[in-house]
Amino acid sequence: MASLDPVLDKDGVRLTVDEAIATVTLTNPAKRNAQSPALWRALTEAGRALPGSVRVVVLRAEGQSFSAGLDRQMFTPEGIEGEPTFIDLARSGDAELDATIAGYQEAFTWWRQSDIVSVAAVQGHAIGAGFQLALACDLRVVADDVQFAMRETSLGLVPDLTGTHPLVGLVGYARALEICVTGRSVGAEEAVTTGLANIAVSRDQLDETVRDLATALLAAPRDAVIETKALLRGAQERTYEAQRAAERAAQARRLRDLAGVGE
After folding, report:
1. Helix 129-136 to helix 164-171 angle, to the nearest 10 degrees?
2. 252 close to 244: Cβ distance less than 8 angstroms
3. Of the four listed, 73, 106, 131, 222, which is most buried by Cβ atoms within 10 Å?
4. What are the start-end ranges of the H helices in 138-239?
């Protein structure tokens, strides 16, 4: 990726902006980009810092792994300094626990907002929280060495960083259940076949392929992309007739905008 002055660079997250394309990079390869509450806060801040000119956001990671999941220190009795331990979370009240997890989830929610298209470039291991972060994006391009795995259930937990909804939407309930409960790895070929990934390429082609895709995503007019994304995202929840109506309403807005005619 091009060398640009970062808009944000903290806690294992760097945000750079090159006109309509923003790049969010996980920058702690020594720990395989393990995730912590500080990293989640930085990801949330990156989303809020996006200029209005940005239309495509690329998520990538330095090193051999995209993200190996939660920082193992979070599983120790002492936890991470300045952060609540799992024991602290377990002892908190229902409302406090819910609010804490909701705060963590904010790092994973903004990638699908209607005015951007997000693309994850995923290499090596994308485990647990790493898998869920890749799932948070609209599109995924993977290297041929990718290994997705949802290990939370194997640890006695559940995936709670917004990954279950897109996973079921992409691969269906039965396969999603099997992937989560067994904790097995999903490689590049299966990821493409099942719809988890849009395309798989060799490791040395990953960044170039994502750059080409990001450029292609900018070709269509922005408002048409926003309307199309909203139509497709809502399609699963709508009936066939409701989707037809949504298409008509969206097209009416586009025609009026193109013709310069007000509502």
Report:
1. 70
2. no
3. 131
4. 164-171, 173-182, 188-194, 206-217, 222-234
Q: Tokens representing 102?
A: 């909701």
Cα–Cα distance list, 247 to 227, 241, 256 (Å): 9, 10, 14
List the structure tokens of 195.
């719809």
Which of 64, 58, 52 lies closest to 25, judged by CA?
58
Is 90 exceeded by the pLDDT of residue 87? no
As a whole number of angstroms, the distance between CA 179 and CA 206 comes to: 25
DSSP 86-120: HHHHHHS-HHHHHHHHHHHHHHHHGGG-TT-EEEE
Q: How far apart are CA 140 and CA 111, in angstroms?
A: 12
- Distance (Å, rounded) from C-alpha 29 to C-alpha 142? 18
pLDDT at 7: 95
Helix segments in 55-200, DSSP class H: 86-91, 94-109, 129-136, 164-171, 173-182, 188-194
Mean per-residue pLDDT, 40-55: 97
- State residue 3's pLDDT score: 61
Q: Is the pLDDT of residue 227 over 90?
A: yes
User: Residue with structure tokens 């869920």?
Assistant: 132
pLDDT tens by residue, 185-220: 999 999 999 999 999 999 999 999 999 999 999 999
Rounded distance between C-alpha atoms, residue 69 and residue 219, angstroms: 34
**Coil, strand, or helix at residue 156?**
coil
> In whole angstroms, what is the distance from residue 234 CA to residue 231 CA?
5
